[in-house]
From TrEMBL, chain A:
Keywords: Pyrimidine biosynthesis, Transferase
Binding site for carbamoyl phosphate: R67, T68, R117, H147, Q150, G277, P278
Gene: pyrB
Location of the Aspartate/ornithine carbamoyltransferase carbamoyl-P binding domain: 15-159
Lineage, opening ranks: Bacteria, Pseudomonadati, Pseudomonadota, Gammaproteobacteria, Chromatiales
GO molecular function: amino acid binding; aspartate carbamoyltransferase activity
Assigned protein family: Belongs to the aspartate/ornithine carbamoyltransferase superfamily. ATCase family.
UniProt protein name: Aspartate carbamoyltransferase
EC number of this enzyme: 2.1.3.2
Matching NCBIfam families: asp_carb_tr, PRK00856.1
BP terms from Gene Ontology: 'de novo' pyrimidine nucleobase biosynthetic process; 'de novo' UMP biosynthetic process; amino acid metabolic process
UniProt catalytic activity: carbamoyl phosphate + L-aspartate = N-carbamoyl-L-aspartate + phosphate + H(+)
Protein function: Catalyzes the condensation of carbamoyl phosphate and aspartate to form carbamoyl aspartate and inorganic phosphate, the committed step in the de novo pyrimidine nucleotide biosynthesis pathway.
Automatic annotation (TrEMBL), chain B:
Gene3D superfamilies registered for this protein in UniProt: Metal-dependent hydrolases, Urease, subunit C, domain 1
Molecular function GO labels: allantoinase activity; dihydroorotase activity; metal ion binding
Domain Dihydroorotase catalytic positions: 55-236
Protein name per Swiss-Prot or TrEMBL: Dihydroorotase, multifunctional complex type
Length: 331, 428
């Protein structure tokens, strides 16, 4: 794969959306602005726009997911695309079919866009590198690497509440080590100009060299970490991390890193609390916070559809530019 | 290989650090052996004269680690295909690790490998016998029988022994027969599921990491066991600066330990993993710039006394997957010489030292009287043009392994002739 950004076409338009890394502030802002426009679609009597009419979008989920897949599906349908949903974890790979075989078979059905979730870091880059050149790939989560649409819907939610990114302090709390969401959020926050991003976790869940790798500040104390912050993003902790060599128990985790009203008190009075879902109540946060006035968790879900519509229509738009015969003279 | 042709190699610059030679000298070969250096003995009538004007003549390279994939993985490569690639690369002796299928843990498999190689006749192949049966890390092999079958060293390939007691006893048993044990220093638990150096790049890309401590913990354990047992050990493929420092310290204290490094470790770093390039999926992983510099210094000073290709040919499918799911390893025989010359160019060490690390250094570790040009020694010779340039791409490679991180790069230096036991086994 070439060292130039594999997400952009030669003119710098978004062709794939694989990671929030390496994209300009203008491009990320453009995604947010376009999502703003799509927010109204849900309020219309007919919740559809024709931007992807005649296009086939395949949701390729090698890892099970309800929420993300559903919002991608809804986003595609609101753009008038035909949608294929494939849960591969239970079918092809069990029969020994390789990722590339699966891809080729779907390409033969003239799919225009793959929305991919896969348990392995780098899977979306791999598919983008090997897919037919006219196909776009959207990363719906690859291993620990990236989950860029989740990050952008979080940026969208933050902007609706806080407007100016350049004056914000943002704290991300939880399993930073295994979190593709955290990585994509940090990169998006930095690109959008957030001056202070903090990550809060016990050392076992904090990846090596995080401060230098991402330009963030690492905290091991929740109270100290959320002091004066404007946004708190809680991450989901997988059950299998508990009672392992990473964490001793849910009880101890909640006691030290669980968000409660009391621990929120050091944050800015108008701080918002976010979570990519699904929440483990009583592990990552208590119900008072999850359902409280500062929680914007459900808003995140509705915003997710608008942001995914924006990203999908932009990538399809880039394809359409290409297919117009005299679209670019110097090609 | 007796009664080979009589050959004179004229007008070249002969470099053999082990014999202290560096200068223009003719080389005369007969009966598979070096007959004379300098003027031809009176009455010597060569069957063939090679004109090596503007070329360098050195001992054929001795590679302590190259996979040939036979028996068992012939869909990747064969002894014939890879020894042919070796000949084209100036490599005349290959030590192949025992991770074939079946494993080289019995005399029969060891003999199968060396006899097949002999039949094709492109390179000397020295099989490393397995330390444990099936490389499973539990029961030791019949080491005496393996030695008798032609295995001068033992190895666990990439499967470290988890049980320290087994490791200790394997080392002790090996000392009974004076066998050197090759160890890939990588702690099994600390490296489990890892595919990249645990550091800035793995953190950014979300790749499961292999920490530096995976190497240093294993180095510490194995050095302690070598000291305890008196075993002679060799670290195959060091990758960290701290591992190198521990090695240097152990050597000062008189522990019988040597080490080598894979050529690519002297060039690439974790930064090359950007964009999930599967050609940079290597074990041990590519580490930091500081590690690379320490490895370079250690090779120059002789703390690390050999450079290997660590050649691992793969079929196309092995690399067609998301990065962590690809098979580690690259095709590396044919870039060995040009990369060595690049090290000399970059001033890391002089050419003579480099050639020593590719010839006499590794030959000494194998305990074989190879890797030098001296009257009476086997005529394993590499003649190369240090100025010819060529571009690496799958079409230029002879090996069946076509994956290399140096793809599309221009290389300087190309083999013109390779002689094995006095016979020309490659000429361009």
């Amino acid at each position: 794969m070439s060292k130039q950004n594999p997400q952009l076409d030669a003119q710098g338009n978004l062709k794939h959306f694989l990671t929030t890394e390496g994209l300009s502030r203008d491009l990320l802002t453009d995604i947010l602005d376009q999502a703003e426009g799509f927010l109204g679609v849900a309020q219309q009597a007919v919740k559809k726009v024709p931007l992807c009419r005649g296009k086939v979008i395949a949701n390729l989920f090698f890892e099970t997911s309800t929420r993300t897949r559903t919002t991608f599906e809804l986003a595609a349908k609101r753009l008038s695309a035909d949608v294929l949903n494939l849960n591969i974890s239970t079918s092809a790979t069990a029969k020994g079919e390789t990722l590339l075989d699966t891809l080729r078979n779907l390409e033969a059905m003239h799919v225009d866009m793959f929305v991919v979730r896969h348990a392995t870091s780098g899977a979306a880059h791999f598919i983008a590198a090997h897919a037919d050149p006219h196909v776009s790939v959207i990363n719906a989560g690859d291993g620990r690497h990236a989950h860029p649409t989740q990050a952008m819907l979080d940026m969208f939610t933050i902007r609706r509440h806080k407007q100016d990114f350049s004056r914000l302090r943002v704290a991300i709390v939880g399993d930073i080590m295994h979190s593709r969401v955290a990585r994509s959020q940090i990169l998006a926050l930095k690109t959008l100009g957030v001056p202070e991003v903090r990550v809060i976790a016990p050392s076992t869940l904090m990846p090596n060299g995080i401060e230098e790798a991402f330009g963030v500040r690492a905290y091991h104390d929740l109270r100290e970490g959320v002091r004066d912050v404007d946004v708190i993003i809680m991450l989901r902790i997988q059950h299998e991390r508990m009672n392992s060599s990473l964490l001793p128990s849910e009880h101890e985790y909640f006691r030290l890193f669980g968000l409660t009203e009391e621990r929120l008190s050091t944050a800015q009075p108008d701080a918002i609390v976010m979570h990519p879902g699904p929440i483990n109540r009583g592990v990552e946060m208590d119900s008072q916070v999850a359902d409280g006035p500062r929680s914007v968790i459900l808003e995140q879900v509705s915003n997710g559809i608008a942001v995914r519509m924006a990203v999908m229509s932009m990538c399809i738009g880039t394809q359409n530019l290409k297919s117009q015969p005299q679209g670019d003279v110097d090609g | 290989m007796a009664n080979g042709p009589r050959i004179s190699i004229r007008n070249g610059r002969l470099i053999d650090p082990a014999s202290g030679l560096d200068g223009e000298a003719d080389l005369h070969i007969a009966d598979g052996k070096v007959l004379a250096i300098g003027p031809a003995p009176s009455g010597f009538q060569p069957d063939r004269t090679l004109d090596a004007r503007d070329q360098l003549i050195c001992p054929g390279f001795v590679d302590l680690c190259a996979r040939l994939r036979e028996p068992g993985h012939e869909h990747k490569a064969t002894i014939a295909s890879e020894t042919r690639a070796a000949a084209a690369s100036g490599v005349t002796t290959i030590c192949c690790p025992p991770d074939t299928l079946p494993v080289i843990d019995t005399p029969a498999v060891a003999q199968l490998v060396s006899q097949t190689a002999e039949r094709h006749g492109f390179a000397r192949v020295v099989p490393a016998g397995a330390v444990t049966q099936g490389l499973k890390g539990a029961k030791i092999t019949e080491m005496a029988a393996l030695k008798q079958a032609g295995c001068p060293v033992l190895s666990q390939a990439d499967s470290p022994i988890r049980d320290t007691q087994v490791q200790r006893r394997a080392m002790e048993y090996a000392t009974t027969f004076g066998l050197t044990v090759f160890l890939h220093p990588q702690d099994a638990a600390l490296s489990e599921e890892g595919c990249a150096h645990e550091g800035l790049v793995s953190t950014r890309l979300g790749l499961p990491g292999i920490p530096e401590a995976a190497e240093t913990v294993a180095v510490a354990r194995d050095l302690a066991l070598a000291e305890q047992t008196g075993a002679r050990i060799h670290f195959r493929g060091l990758s960290t600066a701290r591992g190198v420092a521990m090695l240097a310290e152990a050597r000062r204290r008189g522990i019988q330990v040597t080490a080598d490094v894979s050529m690519h470790q002297l060039f690439l770093t974790e930064d090359d993993l950007e964009c999930f390039d599967a050609n940079c999926h290597l074990i041990p992983p590519l580490r930091t710039h500081a590690d690379r510099e320490a490895l370079r210094t250690a090779v120059a000073s002789g703390v690390i006394s050999a450079i290997c290709s660590d050649h691992q040919p793969h079929d196309a499918d092995a690399k067609l997957a998301p990065f962590p799911e690809t098979a580690p390893g690259i095709s590396a025989l044919e870039t060995l010489l040009p990369l060595a010359l690049r090290l000399a160019d970059e001033g890391v060490m002089d050419l003579a030292t480099l050639i020593e690390r590719l010839t006499h250094g590794p030959a000494t570790i194998l305990g074989r009287a190879l890797g030098r040009i001296a009257p009476g020694a086997p005529a394993d010779i590499c003649v190369f043009d240090p100025e010819t340039t060529w571009v690496v791409n799958p079409a230029t490679l002879i090996s069946h392994g076509l994956h290399t991180p140096f793809n599309e790069q221009e290389m300087r230096g190309r083999v013109s002739w390779t002689l094995l036991g006095g016979r020309i086994v490659f000429e361009r």
